[in-house]
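Field: COMPLEX_INPUT
Field: COMPONENT_COUNT = two
Field: RESIDUE_TOTAL = 228
Field: MODE = joint
Values follow.
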Amino acid sequence: DTEVTQTPKHLVMGMTNKKSLKCEQHMGHRAMYWYKQKAKKPPELMFVYSYEKLSINESVPSRFSPECPNSSLLNLHLHALQPEDSALYLCASSQDLDSYNEQFFGPGTRLTVL
Amino acid sequence: ELKVEQNPLFLSMQEGKNYTIYCNYSTTSDRLYWYRQDPGKSLESLFVLLSNGAVKQEGRLMASLDTKARLSTLHITAAVHDLSATYFCAVDFSSMDSNYQLIWGAGTKLIIKP
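Field: COMPLEX_OUTPUT
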């Protein structure tokens, strides 16, 4: 299996809602990533997990809360988001952080915050 | 400052023509990646370049890496409409106190007209 899957594909939420994005990979990768991508921009790194531990947090507001329950799963919990948080949220995985870093991306979740 | 610069940022070309996208980077690295992104879709890995002088080809696309010049090129031969997409380069960077991270170029939006 060489796929990264993400659910849901689309999400519309209000500013007071709580929702979660899910990501799964079965490639045995030990590094997993969350990116945010705005239209016509490159992806912006949010969080990196390495061996299920949070390795990098790129100063992301606390309304985004990542979780890595096991080596195959990565969640992003959302609470009290702002309209400017509307974007494509991409999950990626790579072998690990110690060698070359080809990252495999999931299809993304298109998030709209009203 | 870590920078990855792509040019051009926008390219409109006719089918059948050849063109080159350039990716310059400011830090020492011998690992560079090219990704393709179709509108509203995720990122697809195209090429992984892991050493000076590396050259990879897939169909009408050829990528190369010159680590001394800190330059990678993505060459399109006899373009066809299906190659219309946004192309990103990304450079692996690691420092003494951090693992590898990808630094992304701004992307080149390529439109190929019939």
